[in-house]
From TrEMBL:
Lineage: Eukaryota, Metazoa, Cnidaria, Anthozoa, Hexacorallia
PROSITE patterns hit by this protein: C_TYPE_LECTIN_2
Residue span(s) of domain C-type lectin: 1-88
Annotated organism of origin: Nematostella vectensis
Pfam family of the protein (one): Lectin_C
SMART domains: CLECT (SM00034)
Domain of life from the UniProt record: Eukaryota
Entry protein name: C-type lectin domain-containing protein
Length: 103
């Protein structure tokens, strides 16, 4: 789950990945493809305030690459992931076990 991924990164002295530029986004997507993965948790979320996405480390969100061009508004899907094309999506935390990227 996203929460487990977040904790695992923190145990390693890191955070779930913040993606601050298009180059970083492309790099993370390429890592997924090279590893044969289709998606992975990243640090973007809106679980504190609905529809107000933030990075888990407190960094401002300047760059985005939401699938469809805008952040999702599904109240039940609060935790961000990136797919192997570089698109950002959200999922339910308690039911999904994706790989994750720490930074």
């Amino acid at each position: 789950t996203w929460s487990i991924a977040k904790s695992s990164c923190q145990e390693q002295g890191a955070f779930l990945a913040t993606i601050l530029t298009a180059d970083e986004n492309s790099f993370v997507a390429s890592l997924l493809r090279e590893g044969g993965k289709t998606s992975a948790w990243i640090g973007v979320n809106d679980h504190v305030t609905q529809d107000h996405y933030v990075w888990v480390d407190g960094s401002p969100i300047a760059f985005t690459n939401w699938s469809g061009g805008t952040p999702p508004t599904d109240a039940n899907k609060n935790f961000g992931r990136i797919d192997d094309r570089g698109a950002w999506l959200t999922d339910l935390d308690q039911f999904i076990s994706w790989p994750y990227v720490c930074k």
